[in-house]
Amino acid sequence: MVHGVINLRSTFYSEVGIGILANTILFLFHVIKFLCDKRLKNTDCIIGLLALTHLLMLLTMGFIAADIFTSQGGLWGDVTCKSFAYLYKLMRGLSISATCLLSVLQALTLSPRSSCLAKFKPKAPQDSLRSLLFLWVFYMSFSAHFSISAVDNSTGTSQGLIFLSDSCTILPMSYFLRHLFTALGALWDVFLIGLMALSSGYMVTLLHRHKRQCQHLHGTSLSPKASPEQRATRTILLLLGFFVLMSYLDCVISSSRTMWNNDPVCHSIQMMVANGYATSSPLVFICTEKTQP
Questions:
Q1: Helix %, strand %, coil % of the chain (to 5)
Q2: What are phi and psi of 157, to 5 degrees?
Q3: What does the pLDDT look like over 169-179, one tens digit per residue?
Q4: pLDDT tens, residue by residue, 123-180
């Protein structure tokens, strides 16, 4: 059991380290591109800010894990852990918002000129950046009233692994308001995920229609080269696939934790799964940038 916990800890820190390195590379690449290249795509600013969000998210989770994995716990203090927990929750929400906007913008970019959605296409990268900043300001002002879960008093240890059990809030709230804002936050996430699903289905439909048209014009023996918009669309669809997979696994493991009485090993696995999207998303963009001319 002790060796299992040590292996989980090593795996977790390896995942966080890879994610931090990959997001740093992706963020710096888009910063240099923003400063030097005038031919920016509408999604470039969002991808750069998404990498920055995931970078802060992984750094925050690393500090939280350092407190959880210590034998005594309370490494950073109660107030600091509250701040880390709030920052992680905020970065997670901003990540969902940026991913949703990325999928919607790509669906608008891919839509034909005859479509009714063509008039909503952003004319410049600054338009998509303003849309993302509006979403972030709205979410941050909305989430400021959320109750914040953090380390209160450690109530369970197992082989030097302390896990979160109690909760506390920075802002005092009544029972009704606390559950009301929690429900509103869940509805906001469901709304964004629904937009991702609609935009993904629309992009798949457009790609399938384009493929059939090319086969009809050029014949089945030819495989026409995909346009940059189509390659970017496939990259974002792959990214959304990772997001859905990690979210599904997170829900399954969260449900399993209650069955296993909050087993610390299960909790550690959930932490790794929760960081899976933040770690894999920059790798998807980096790999596709290498393959694109």
A1: 75, 0, 25
A2: -135, 155
A3: 444 556 666 67
A4: 777 777 788 888 888 777 766 655 444 334 344 444 434 344 444 444 455 666 667 7
Written as one letter, the residue type at 29 is F
Residue 8: which of 68, 63, 72 has the closest Cα?
68
Residue 101 in any domain: the answer is: yes
Residue 266, token pair as written in the block: 């299960």
Count of the separate structural domains present in the chain? 1
d(CA 182, CA 254): 17
- Residue by residue, DSSP assigns 85-101 as HHHHHHHHHHHHHHHHH
pTM of the model: 0.80
Report whether 284 contacts 260 (CB < 8 A).
no
Number of H helices, E strands in the chain: 8, 2
CATH of the domain at 230: 1.20.1070.10
Contact by Cβ (8 Å): 97, 192: yes
Element (H, E) at 162: strand 161-162
